[in-house]
């Protein structure tokens, strides 16, 4: 791994380019169980000018990732992703597969899923064993271009207290192993609390500090590639982007696009503060982790801690979107109830995991293709 070359990637990067990555479950249309169709869909997608670059594997063969590629700005990235989604739905129909978009799969046993045969995921499985096999989760990840290594690291530092807020807004996974976990984001508990070098990163301040840390991990045989740093926000060495990785997969197109817009606005605001020479709030990790727990446990139905006010006090997590809108100056359209809240309302009304998940799958099917037609 050439860390000097990675810094050069950032020095030549461009502010506020956008890339979107969405992970989908591949499910049987009737049983809604996961089905191992990634390889056949990937191979068929090679004949499509868009999908040949947009489709990627993500750990298990019953999961597929769709990528926008580099958008020159937010609207360009959304346009690219909508077209890729449209084609993915058509490809899934061709293969008799339904696409599901929640942070976890409520029904299928993780022990029956197969990890895809690539060098990267063989390494992940060999290194993490149960932790990797257990991680049947689905996420929305957003890349935002930042020019300059130091600026990129400072933006990551600034976003640390924002991450739990984004998690509360995006929570969409109350189920695990066919059971109600009692959480709003079981995905976060399964992935973020199990994988090494995951969750909220430390403050690094400069690219040099970051580089020294990564070099230490390399020198001590802790990692062999930077992607083994699975933090909820990280500097991506290959793309010259900040990758925000905190969010559950979103059930509807409106939610996914709105969340992408909100994340881009947060990075843009962080850049403005960095360029103005403002010092990010000096917040210890244990306080941010308290908000992480509150977000994954209660989502928008709970209370978060205001860590950046004159005094640490609680506030309703339902206000999180409005607070981020006020901070970023961007008015983003998101529904009043997020995915976890809608599912939990059905759970509280006595619906089974199959019934709840069926509703989610129907929402996905109804809303994504309808939105894709809007260019």
UniProtKB/TrEMBL annotation:
What's one Pfam family here?
GCS2
UniProt cross-references to PROSITE patterns, sorted A to Z: CYSTEINE_SWITCH
The terms under GO molecular function for this entry are: ATP binding; glutamate-cysteine ligase activity; metalloendopeptidase activity; zinc ion binding
Q: For this UniProt record, give its keywords in alphabetical order, as a comma-separated list.
A: ATP-binding, Hydrolase, Ligase, Metal-binding, Metalloprotease, Nucleotide-binding, Protease, Signal, Zinc, Zymogen
Record flagged with keyword Signal: yes
UniProt cross-references to InterPro entries, sorted A to Z: GCL_type2/YbdK_subfam, GCS2, Gln_synth/guanido_kin_cat_dom, Pept_M10A_Zn_BS, YbdK
* Family per record: Belongs to the glutamate--cysteine ligase type 2 family. YbdK subfamily.
**Full protein name:** Putative glutamate--cysteine ligase 2
Taxon lineage: Bacteria, Bacillati, Actinomycetota, Thermoleophilia, Solirubrobacterales
